[in-house]
Write a structure and sequence with these properties.
It contains seven helices and two strands; from the N terminus they run βααβααααα. With about 180 residues, it is mainly alpha-helical. The protein has a two-stranded antiparallel sheet with strand order 1-2. Bound molecules: heme C. Pfam families: Cytochrom_C. Keywords: Heme, Iron, Metal-binding, Signal.
Length: about 180
Amino acid sequence: MTARGSSGGRVASALALAALLPCAAKSAAAGPAAQAAPASGDLRVATATTLLVTADGIASPLPGAAAGDAARGRAIVANRQLGLCLLCHTGPIPEERFQGNLAPDLQGAGQRWTAAQLRLRIVDASRVNPATIMPAYYKTEGLTRVAASYQGKTILTTQQIEDVVAWLQTLKEPAP
Ligand code: HEC
């Protein structure tokens, strides 16, 4: 599968996104990946991209994406077909009624987390919390219960993820 596990010599905090593979997911379930995280390895995400996860984030913008656009990101989060974020989260999007209460308020996310941390949480929240209910927005392998129309595809594109991250970064005000 992939060179997950320890390929010694790498900085302990450097992980690649290999936990997206089923075998890696199992070992991730043994303990919160973000905390343990001593293993380094290649994590394969959608497409042939390998993303380097450092500490608990993805520092570099996703491949192929231009700088994120916060206004577009806000629209993606508000969109009930695309992001579905408001199914679970509340956020400072007052025009959208019936927001979720299953997850933290997105308000303040830009103060609580760095861009790298936000990026990882959108790409694959299970890297941080193996038991999360939050969908992995940029992952195709190791997923179960995927609708036929989504098989082999990510929920969001790299550009959409960068846009969402850009908007989340603007949310500096603490939640009420
Ligand atoms: C099915 C429910 C669900 C959906 C849909 C969802 N999330 Fe989440 N999200 C969660 C939960 C639950 C957490 C809390 C941490 C955990 O359990 O993984 C979380 C955590 C987060 C965090 C970290 C929150 C914090 O400050 O601690 C961010 C940021 C986030 N989600 C953004 C998003 C965005 C943006 C979308 C849409 C693109 C989204 N989420 C869609 C359930 C969801």
